[in-house]
Protein 1
Amino acid sequence: MATIKDVAKLAGVAISTASYALNNSNKVSQATKEKVEAAAKSLNYKKNGFASDLKRTKTNTIALILSDLSGPFYSELIQGVQDVTTANGFDLIACSSIGGANSTATKFLQEKRVDGAIILAHNISDEVTLQSARKGFPLVVLDRKLDSDFVYNIEVDNTHGGYLATEHLIQNGHREIAYVSGPYNSHDNNLRFQGYMNALNDHGIAYQPKWKIIGDFTREGGYRTTKMLIAQRKFPHAIFYSNDEMAIGGLEALRENNISVPDDISIIGFDDIQLAEYVSPPLSTIKQPKYEAGSLAVHVIFQLLAGEKVDHHYTLSTELVKRQSVKQRKLPEPIT
Amino acid sequence: MATIKDVAKLAGVAISTASYALNNSNKVSQATKEKVEAAAKSLNYKKNGFASDLKRTKTNTIALILSDLSGPFYSELIQGVQDVTTANGFDLIACSSIGGANSTATKFLQEKRVDGAIILAHNISDEVTLQSARKGFPLVVLDRKLDSDFVYNIEVDNTHGGYLATEHLIQNGHREIAYVSGPYNSHDNNLRFQGYMNALNDHGIAYQPKWKIIGDFTREGGYRTTKMLIAQRKFPHAIFYSNDEMAIGGLEALRENNISVPDDISIIGFDDIQLAEYVSPPLSTIKQPKYEAGSLAVHVIFQLLAGEKVDHHYTLSTELVKRQSVKQRKLPEPIT
DNA sequence: CTGTTAGCGCCTTCAA
DNA sequence: TTGAAGGCGCTAACAG
């Protein structure tokens, strides 16, 4: 690979001159610039990005850390992140946190290969997050709540969302409502569950532990837990799946058992992923402002990079999306 | 930020010693190593990735270049890429080519920030691709065909896929078959169209230019072109959308006009994206071996990096997936 | 406008 | 086992 040295030599100028010329500085004459450019072209010279980043101690890129690049992550969120990042002339790279401490994500977080990062990856530990955040390296987390001088939190109002979902079910006459949870360590899940509890409570319905089923936020998990529910003697009036993926898995399990949604049972999800609208029946769910969350996250980073002071915590609101998986419950005929 | 110098100073050793200790070399005593590690920890030292990459002139990361990070890209493909990459202990980063020549993708391609790259982004020009590829920097393209010493091609058999789709329609009694194309400059599209033509030809059906509609591979494009088709006087027996996204957009247009699929018209897509199975009716389509394409791509890169010689061209086969959007055409009652 | 020079932070011979 | 020193490729004073 040709270096700037080779270019300078070929063009017959000093290295610095070549550098200036290549960076479009106005310190060199048009003639030299052309000479240098010609030399660069003929050598197929490409600058070494590291060397220049090293020198300037700044990369102009921010990282988006996802738990799995191929996962059903939120394309709107990425869109938001992407839009704001490119609008600011920064580069955006996405990397996965598969592999935990040895993952690419951890590497990027720790080795200052980027100027800032957004984390949406439950498999990055709080510990890694906390010890990576430092002055001059803003970190925004979208999936947890962390108190640190250098970590900024953006959350959607999961509690309220959980409340909304549960209340919608209650208002449709359902009282025996199962909650299919996400993993135990999921902050989001815990808040959604809190909302579920609150709604039950506000409507004078006693919480029954038997209706809390532990899932894992995956489609298979939803399928499995639903099968389990079906295998049990008692069946709820409705199921609140703590995310859409699980609800879709559940839908499949229900269909296989000829249990009709929403005639026999009502179900509701959380997230409003793209698929939700296409499954049959279309899934009622809780919509999160994903685009906003993504763009806000980057926005915070840029403010921080510019040395401004910003809040450490933001909460975005959620919204009920009524589709066709929830229906008014037919009460058993009163005996006359 | 603490540098290795600070660590060395605090630990009371030379810089090189600190470096050895931190890199687990066996050239330092256990005692020194511990001393250095303690110092590093207390300073919250993190090595600067650039500096070390610069020194070793190798990054251990490969880039996956997508036209849009938030786009409906192929999660299975990414899965394949990801699996093989991490299995080889390399890092994977995804970046977008939005912005063309000024995009992050172009930057990564040109500034040797990665050891190899996989391109699946029609908005990266052949020119950029060609001039980025160089010895020691293997490039695999998944969406075009390029002849260069340093570019490797992996294609799915689009022509055969197009043939399969069209033939399936023909075998169901359809003869007036519209083709909704992708963008003009899409290599994939051209091959699919070729397959369409071949099938028509093999079955003695004359190609009619009026049945070729120019789309753009987006859902909106499919919607728009279908509306157009509907607005015209003549309507085809069936439509072959050159990708699923467009077919889904088309489905919507058809539904809005109370044209039933597959009763009034049969349609087929291409790609077998996740949604295809969930739309109503479930979309018949052509499935591509996406996971294989992704894993093969990285595999090729690693072979190249290891100095092995590999073929410049691979073709993976496609397969017809029958679902419910294609139906045998009722012939008009013969007059008796 | 151009050239000289001193590092950015790290790794790695080489000599002690 | 440890330390001194050179340099990866580039940028940015500074001096001419």
Protein 2
Amino acid sequence: MSPAGAGRRTPRRTRQRQAVADLLAAHPGFISAQRVHSLLAEGGIEVGLATVYRCLAQMVAGGELDTIVAESAEVLYRRCSADHHHHLVCRRCGTTVEVHDPQVESWADGVARAHGFADVNHRVEVMGVCRACAL
Amino acid sequence: MSPAGAGRRTPRRTRQRQAVADLLAAHPGFISAQRVHSLLAEGGIEVGLATVYRCLAQMVAGGELDTIVAESAEVLYRRCSADHHHHLVCRRCGTTVEVHDPQVESWADGVARAHGFADVNHRVEVMGVCRACAL
DNA sequence: ACGTACATGAGAACCATTATCAGTTACCTC
DNA sequence: GAGGTAACTGATAATGGTTCTCATGTACGT
């Protein structure tokens, strides 16, 4: 087909990949690869751990998932909208709100420019306890 | 003696602890524990890896160091001021500028409150290429 | 239905970090 | 200055998340 990999190949449709995608689609907050694996196992769906990692990595590469790094240094995944945004995460239940706010974007750019930095990106995470968990 | 030193023991003065502290004091950007260990070794100062980790952890606990988690999920350390701030990091040379700006603090609080989140903290990191590296 | 390139998975490898524990040493007391 | 002790050190093992290996399986174009 296309020589020199002009496009990326279409991933094959397997029950494992489907199971991981379905679980992520249904999960409201960030979740670790290990937990994806055990949740699938609990649901009677056997998927190898290596395969879980592979599927998640591919979904991240394809822009379907966002990642954050927990304090324990494990990577957490979540299905997110494609455009730039940040996260407001409940540290009790993991419920996550996407925050789209140009204010913080221009703040970051301003700070960087003030110090002569170019080619800027940034990462913002806000953590707290959501209304439901605070009760 | 530290005033209000309720329960804090004075760390013993050893050549290992001194070596780690000196290296961090002289280092301009964030650095990993592994790299601290190898830099000391290159300088002919033998310090066990476990001891490097211990010293760094104690310095973090004592508020002498800040940490961030790199994309590779390894923890990076840097000597920082004690009060709350964020970092502007050059992704080429690692040079870091501390950013003290109440604007982003109130932004984070406002976002959290708007969604009913309480007990909020946040993490902000801005990455770019500093003036020297952009040349 | 066939063939094959891509996908899978069990387990090994990897890597940063932490725990173990016997030997060392800074520092207080006399 | 000598001595005792609790803190410190470091070689090594253990841990835990993630990635690699490679033999086997399978989706999908033909």
